[in-house]
UniProtKB/TrEMBL annotation:
SUPFAM superfamilies: Restriction endonuclease-like (SSF52980). Keywords: Endonuclease, Hydrolase, Membrane, Nuclease, Transmembrane, Transmembrane helix. Residues 45-155 form the Restriction endonuclease type IV Mrr domain. One of its GO terms (molecular function) is DNA binding. It comes from the Bacteria. The chain crosses the membrane at residues 6-25. The keyword Ribonucleoprotein does not apply. GO terms for biological process: DNA restriction-modification system. Gene3D superfamilies: 3.40.1350.10. The keyword Nucleotide-binding does not apply. This is Restriction endonuclease.
Length: 161
């Protein structure tokens, strides 16, 4: 009977160590991403690579387009059998609705039913309203908006897509 207790204690300790190691690795990953974002990225292409890497680290299958002739898709994310076309906008001001128009056009070409916008800035109320209109009036089932606050949540491991 004593050996059963010893094995159970060992297994609980091992499980605890695995949980701690996972937590510390995630915390380090988040710190590195936050550092990269705070340090500043030089241009939109660096931001696209940053966002793609972030979603890969969150466990998604990610494809980046080549930048030109991408039909409005900067990043394509595969999730649970569906595809999300993302526009990544690294701006000094709030993105316009044009970014969602570009993603919508790309969704038609790539056959996606979900689109999104990821930006380093805040999201305007008019952009949020436009996203709701797209969901109500087009073939798009879901519009995902990820602004500065939501980007922080993704860096903390939250799955917003």
């Amino acid at each position: 009977m004593d050996w059963i207790k010893i094995v159970l204690i060992f297994l609980l300790g091992l499980f605890g160590l695995i949980l701690i190691a996972t937590y510390l690795a995630r915390k380090k990953r988040i710190k590195n991403f936050r550092k990269k974002l705070e340090k500043g990225l030089n241009n939109g292409w660096e931001f696209e690579k940053f966002v793609a890497e972030l979603f890969k680290k969150c466990g998604y299958k990610v494809t980046t387009t080549k930048g030109t002739h991408d039909f409005g898709a900067d990043i394509i994310v595969q999730k649970r059998g569906s595809m999300v076309v993302l526009q990544a906008k690294y701006l000094s001001s709030t993105p316009s609705t044009t970014a969602l128009d570009e993603a919508l056009a790309a969704a038609m070409i790539y056959g996606a039913t979900e689109i999104g916008l990821v930006t380093n800035t805040q999201l305007s109320d008019s952009l949020k309203e436009y996203a709701r209109k797209i969901e109500e009036t087009t073939f798009i089932k879901k519009v995902i908006l990820i602004g500065r606050k939501e980007l922080e949540r993704v860096m903390n491991g939250e799955r917003l897509i």
